[in-house]
Design brief:
The protein is built from 27 helices and two strands. It is an all-alpha fold. Among the domains are: 94 residues, no CATH class; 100 residues, Serine Threonine Protein Phosphatase 5, Tetratricopeptide repeat (Alpha Horseshoe), CATH 1.25.40. It has a two-stranded antiparallel sheet with strand order 1-2.
Length: 487
């Protein structure tokens, strides 16, 4: 065997070698070359960095474990790999290694250790945080984000309030946490508070979280202000933020503006196209959704499974059976969600037999969406037998859903079978089932008010009810007047 060519000592050649590695196979080849030359312990932290950059945490930890005397810079990288695994056994072992190496006081190592514990054991992360004598902003943000990710927003807010000097990352963590945990109003309030802080400018991530909150609230006015802020700060170049703006405009009812934002984008991702298609579908613009989908097939990236779900929803709302068939048949390995959408397309069009045959030919068990679509179609078509069949399946997968029994009751009522209607109502009553209250929101003078059915806690409820009664009486007078005019 020919002798191996020598390699120059030092880090530059290793940096150059690792910079050319773009896959697991490339990295393994480089590692094998180093092992054959006995150079595998030459700056191992650089190799660990390459492993984490390529998303190979197990490989990184295996390389770390082979180092008899790890470089101090190797510990944060190994802990970063452990954090991505969320393995509650690996981090304590690395923690012991840190203590034995005498690196516990190092703030960079402590920050990495805190991140690793935050992904696997929140109590251990809190204990470690309390033991750090002077936590830096990275430590504060890490422990706050760990609580926000889990939805513990009261604790996250408490930690945030204790921070000596919250930075942009701190505020973004809080805003994103509120937006994800179903508190969009609190997310927007935090964003406005951030804007009032001297020396702080919201970045792309914080604006994106605030835009998402506007979408959930239906707060178009605040959404427009955020859009203007993004344009002034040149944040509009961010594709994810622009995707969020399209979603916000569509959910707030301004589909035309959503389309204008979409058309103005110089670069569009799969998410961009999917968001636009879903926005059109949500407003019943099935033909427009299909047109954008067909344009995507010609101009854009290849549609993924979520894109096909969105366009199938548009076909369902628009009664576009043939377009739905074409999309469904072109879907590789359709999931139960795709079958559910196609069943809905067929059921809404009155093709109940074909819908049932599609369900019976599925390679897996139907879920609530599939059987619910069939039951809704049976109600529209007045098919008592098919409705009873669908209800039987639904009682197996979601027996506590009151709406299913109500749909079946409507079918019986349409057939004049009042005894069966009474039986459905008795099943609802005896089972202690309650329909989930409906909800809505309305924006008045920049404030968003939320209302739910049977809720009587609004401070202006009496005035609202009086106004509704007045409007109702006024409408009745108008109707009576019209009837007399045309008689």
């Amino acid at each position: 065997m020919a002798p191996l060519p020598p390699l120059l000592p030092g880090e530059p050649w290793l940096r150059a070698l690792l910079s050319r590695c773009s896959s697991h196979a490339h990295l393994a080849q480089a590692h094998a070359s180093l092992l054959r030359r006995g150079l595998d312990q030459s700056s191992p932290h650089l190799f660990l960095s390459a492993c984490t950059a390529l998303g190979l945490p197990l490989y990184a930890l295996s390389v770390f474990s082979l180092s008899p005397h790890p470089h101090p810079l190797s510990f944060p990288l190994a802990l970063k790999a452990a954090a991505s695994l969320s393995d509650r056994h690996v981090t304590p072992q690395l923690h012991c290694h840190v203590i034995l190496s005498g690196l516990s006081p190092d703030l960079h190592v402590s920050s990495a250790l805190l991140l690793a514990y935050s992904s696997s054991s929140l109590p251990s992360a809190l204990q470690l945080f309390d033991e750090i004598p002077h936590p830096d902003p990275v430590c504060w943000n890490t422990i706050t984000a760990a609580h926000a990710r889990r939805g513990y927003m009261d604790r996250a807010q408490s930690l945030f309030d204790r921070m000596p000097r919250p930075n942009v990352v701190s505020w973004t963590t809080l805003i994103s946490g509120y937006a994800r945990s179903g508190a969009p109003a609190a997310a927007l309030a935090a964003f406005r508070h951030m804007q009032a802080q001297p020396g702080l400018r919201p970045d792309t991530v914080s604006v994106l979280a605030a835009v998402s909150a506007c979408a959930k609230l239906g707060d178009l006015r605040s959404g427009i202000c955020l859009h203007r802020y993004a344009l002034r700060g040149e944040l509009f170049r961010s594709v994810p933020l622009t995707n969020a703006l399209i979603d916000m405009y569509a959910k707030c009812g301004s589909v035309t503006t959503a389309m204008e934002v979409f058309e103005a984008m110089p670069e569009r991702s799969v998410v961009t196209w999917t968001t636009m298609i879903a926005g059109l579908a949500r407003h019943g613009l099935g033909e427009e959704a299909v047109a954008v989908f067909e344009r995507m097939e010609r101009e854009g990236p290849a549609p993924n499974s979520v894109t096909r779900l969105a366009v199938l929803a548009g076909c369902s709302h628009g009664g576009l059976v043939e377009a739905g068939r074409r999309v469904f048949e072109a879907t590789t390995a359709p999931t139960v969600e795709h079958y559910g959408c196609m069943v809905d397309v067929l059921s809404r069009a009155g093709l109940l037999r074909e819908a049932r045959e599609l369900i019976e030919g599925m390679p897996f068990e139907g879920n609530a969406a599939v059987w619910g679509s069939l039951l809704a179609g049976a109600r529209s078509g007045g098919d008592e037998e098919l409705g009873a069949f669908a209800l039987g399946k639904l009682t197996e997968v979601e027996p506590e859903n009151c709406g299913n029994y109500s749909l079946m009751s409507d079918i019986y009522a349409g057939q004049g079978r009042w005894g069966q209607v009474g039986m459905m109502r008795k099943m609802i009553r005896d089972g202690g089932l309650r329909k989930t209250p409906g909800g809505s929101s309305v924006e008045v003078d920049g404030l968003v008010y939320e209302f739910t059915s049977r809720c009587s806690s609004h401070p202006e409820l009496e005035g609202i009810m009086n106004t509704l009664a007045h409007l109702s009486a006024h409408l009745k007078e108008m109707v009576m007047g019209d009837a007399q005019f045309f008689s």
